[in-house]
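Design request, tokens follow.
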């Protein structure tokens, strides 16, 4: 049998009610104890006064007779000398040593004082049954008030819980409705904590499944693409060896071979990143890497009217992942070809970072905040004219993601100078915190 779990509302109600019940109960008990002690002290004070009066009576001239001295509904007194007069004293009170006592005799509560006088041993009993009954009624009143307070607390706690917890309960219902496999496999738990935990587990399982499928797809793509890439590279190398090619043709053939190598390296890097592995860092010549990326994009840039000027500090080196940096630079170049041309792109930098500046149309302020979002290049790719475009809006998002993984900072500024035209992308190799502090 499955153990019932309390809902969040029930837990709030029980917690508030238990707290109030404990506090009010403690106050009631303390009030009852104080009342009881006060009644006992008042009764003992009255008893002492009665004893003083009886003692004063026994000191009058003449020998006071033994036996019962006073017998009323409230006060009883007896005087004994040895065994004389002891038969008049109730059995429960015989043989008591001098002192104060509280006894129950014949259903009555008696406060008893025993003292020795010149005429003998004096026993005085004060009937405190009425006082004890009054204390009992006071205790019952306190108990009734405690019950009323607890009941009122339950009602108030339910109202407070409904007001305070309802947003959480509503959010829980929404999360449960959107959990995977609903409504085919409804969530079995009824308490909010259980519903959230089961919903989270379903979302986590779905994400794990999606990640596993993406990794499987990447592995399958790598396996399927390597064979044709190997064929292309082999044929390109054989063509270069077997045919007498013009310098321009040989340059194109070399670019084909380099592009095939880049595809293989990119695929390998993608698989490593998807599996949580990172490519080892290596010394990188920044000028050589940037020029290699520009050479690969030269024909495409020329077709679109983009002039590329490389002014990277000669000899500047960086210890980093070559494939990650090459991918970032290539995506920034591709972005300039697609969105800035016709224009001039100037690439400057040193071991601290690279700057990509163009004099193209620039980026609108409303768009600049989203240039690194996936599937955006001015607007969502599934909106308006972008729906028919073959562009995917992933280049800058991939570049930013790689920068985050390497601890670099990539920012877009537009326009970089007066005139309202142009775009500037700044890539800082310093850690993000240091770059932000120096910005």
């Amino acid at each position: 049998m499955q153990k019932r779990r309390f809902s969040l509302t029930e837990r709030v109600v029980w917690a508030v009610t238990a707290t109030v019940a404990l506090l009010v109960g403690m106050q009631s008990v303390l009030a009852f104890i104080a009342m009881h002690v006060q009644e006992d002290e008042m009764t003992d004070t009255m008893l002492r006064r009665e004893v003083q009066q009886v003692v004063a009576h026994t000191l009058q001239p003449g020998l006071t007779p033994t036996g019962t001295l006073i017998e009323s509904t409230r006060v009883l007194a007896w005087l004994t000398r040895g065994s004389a007069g002891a038969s008049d004293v109730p059995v429960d009170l015989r043989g008591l040593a001098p002192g104060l006592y509280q006894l129950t005799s014949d259903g009555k509560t008696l406060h008893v004082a025993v003292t020795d006088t010149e005429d003998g041993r004096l026993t005085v009993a004060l009937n405190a049954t009425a006082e004890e009954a009054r204390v009992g009624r006071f205790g019952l009143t306190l108990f009734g008030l405690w019950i009323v307070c607890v009941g009122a607390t339950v009602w108030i706690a339910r109202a407070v819980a409904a007001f305070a917890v309802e947003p959480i309960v509503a959010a829980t219902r929404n999360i449960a409705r959107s959990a995977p496999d609903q409504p085919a496999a409804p969530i079995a738990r009824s308490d909010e904590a259980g519903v959230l935990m089961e919903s989270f587990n379903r979302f986590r399982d779905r994400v794990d499944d999606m990640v596993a499928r993406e990794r499987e797809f990447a592995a399958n793509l790598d396996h399927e693409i390597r064979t044709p890439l190997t064929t292309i590279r082999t044929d390109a190398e054989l063509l270069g060896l077997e045919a007498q090619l013009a310098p321009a043709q040989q340059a194109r053939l070399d670019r084909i071979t380099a592009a095939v190598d880049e595809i293989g390296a990119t695929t390998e890097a993608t698989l490593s990143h998807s599996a949580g592995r990172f490519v080892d860092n290596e010394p990188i010549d920044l000028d050589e890497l940037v020029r290699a990326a520009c050479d690969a994009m030269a024909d495409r840039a020329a077709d679109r009217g983009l002039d590329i000027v490389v002014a990277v500090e000669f000899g500047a080196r960086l210890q980093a992942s070559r494939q990650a940096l090459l991918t970032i630079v290539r995506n920034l170049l591709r972005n300039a070809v697609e969105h800035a041309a016709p224009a001039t792109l100037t690439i400057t930098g040193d071991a601290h970072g690279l700057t990509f500046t163009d004099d193209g149309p620039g980026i609108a302020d409303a768009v600049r905040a989203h240039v690194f979002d996936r599937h955006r290049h001015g607007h969502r790719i599934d909106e308006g004219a972008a729906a028919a475009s073959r562009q995917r809006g992933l280049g800058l998002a991939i570049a930013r993601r790689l920068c985050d993984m390497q601890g670099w900072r990539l920012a877009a500024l537009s326009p970089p100078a007066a005139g309202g035209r142009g775009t500037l992308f700044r890539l800082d190799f310093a850690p993000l915190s240091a770059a932000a502090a120096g910005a």
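Comment from the thread starter after seeing the answer: thanks! The first helix runs from residue 8 to 58.
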